[in-house]
Amino acid sequence: MPGPTAVIGGTATVYVPDDTTQIALGYTEIRIYWAASETASASLATTLTLVSGTFDYTYNKTDALATDWFYWALYGATPGEGPASERVPIGPTRSTRLAIRQGVGQLLRLMDGPYALATAATASLCTISALIDPDASAHRLTNRFVRCSGGTAIGQTRRTRTAANSGYIPATGTLTLGRATSPAWVAADSVEIWRAKGDEDLSVLIDQAMNTTAPSIYIEDSFYLTIDDSVSEYYLPQGIGELNTLGVDWVRDSYPSKPDWRPVGFFDFATDGGSTILTVKRAAIGPSYYSQGDIIRVRYASNPDNMDSDTDYWAIPLEWAVAEVAMTFLDTIATPSGGLEQIVDAERAKAALRRNLDTYRGRWMPRVQMKVIMPR
Fold first, then answer.
1. Residue 106 lies in a domain
2. I want to staple 259 with a disulfide (CB 3.0 to 4.6 A). Which of 41, 66, 251, 374 is the partner?
3. Are 280 and 236 in contact (CB under 8 A)?
4. Which residue has the higher pLDDT, 289 or 185?
5. pLDDT digit string, tens, across residues 159-173
6. Contact present, 22 and 48 (Cβ < 8 Å)
7. Which of 123, 157, 11, 14 is nearest to 74 (CA)?
8. Rounded distance between C-alpha atoms, residue 53 and residue 36, angstroms
9. Is residue 57 included in any domain, yes or no?
10. Is 353 helix (H, G, I), strand (E, B) or coil?
11. CA gap 31, 292 in Å, rounded
12. C-alpha to C-alpha distance for 238 and 181, rounded to whole angstroms
């Protein structure tokens, strides 16, 4: 069956409810600015004419990326440019594996950095200006795992040597690695410095904790279908079913500019050979099906994907992702491993984290409600 019209790139939406007042002040246009990130310099993407009686304006930038941001401002020749709106992302919330790992490391005080290399004299000797501290202990950053998180060799990890072998020289911020990097790190590479748990690299354990966390949390996702006149039942992809469906809506107006999503009158599920089948009807007495071309949206709770690289992401707020992964990580290390204090410390950290985690789940994790059909 045909799919709904796709929006290529990104779409900026501007809402001007007090258009009459703004036009009276001399504003005639809406300027939309585009930027590659939240902090990057923005440039003017387009100018839209301010029209009396029109409250909603949209602009589709076909070459936009999901990581782009935009903001808008009113403009008129006499008043000039008005106050700018807040800069907002054009795509979904993106919490990358890199951001989550570093967030967990900083939350649990297991990671220093990330730092940028000032120089890399050899493949096993590098200097970090931020680590210059003549009064620091020479043991502070020895026997740590140093992980390249940006630059020539993302994901490559080496361990610093002992103080006796000049693993860390506080006066110069120099680190000596136990093994040569390959390819060699270079100046401006970004690195994370992790505490060790015996011979284990905690950054790797946190990456593993993310994939352990994925099946235990839910995020909201959507599946779209279009109605065929002669079809009343529609097969849904694997992973969508009655138990995790949040709602079924239809487009009352026009998609995608102003869809006006409304709940369908009735929907029901059946199974056929392990596949889920959806039946939808209008809100009317007796069987009243939707018309050819009508667009239906199924909102459902799904598990996020596994994280296989630092650029993979979950479409959830970073605070929540960090809390979830930190809790899973603490569950992992709170097992007998030769030191009782590790278990005690992990349990204390989990108790403090639980309060925030409950708040984040209550705010952001979708809750599925069972559909109840009342008898007539």
1. no
2. 251
3. no
4. 185
5. 999 999 999 999 999
6. no
7. 14
8. 32
9. yes
10. helix
11. 38
12. 44
Rounded CA separation 96/219 (Å): 15
- On whether the CB atoms of residues 189 and 142 are closer than 8 A, the answer is no
Assigned token pair, 131:
């680590």
DSSP 42: P
pLDDT at 203: 94
With 60 as the cut, is the pLDDT of residue 6 above it? Answer: no
The Cα–Cα gap between 299 and 314 comes to 17
| DSSP single-letter state for residue 368 | -
Token pair, residue 156, equals 């490559």
In the chain, the number of structural domains is 4
Residue 357 is assigned to a structural domain of this protein: yes
Please tell me the distance from the alpha carbon of residue 161 to that of residue 156, in angstroms, as a whole number: 17
Tell me which residue of 65, 44, 19, 7 sits closest to 311, measured CA to CA: 65
Rounded CA gap, 333 and 113, in Å? 22
Q: Please give the Cα distance from 213 to 327 (Å, whole number).
A: 9
Beta-bridge partners for 235: 277
Name the amino acid, one letter, at 190.
S
Burial category of 11 from C-beta neighbours within 10 Å (exposed 0-12, middle 13-18, buried 19 and up): middle
Query: Which residues fall within 8 angstroms of residue 10, CB to CB, at 6 or more apart?
Result: 60, 61, 64, 65, 66, 68, 70, 90, 91
Contact between 127 and 146 under an 8 Å Cβ cutoff? The reply is no
Residues spanned by the domain of 242: 220-302
H-helix segments, the chain: 19-24, 97-107, 202-213, 318-333, 340-364
Q: What is the pLDDT of residues 113-149, one digit of tens each?
A: 999 999 998 999 999 999 999 999 999 999 999 999 9
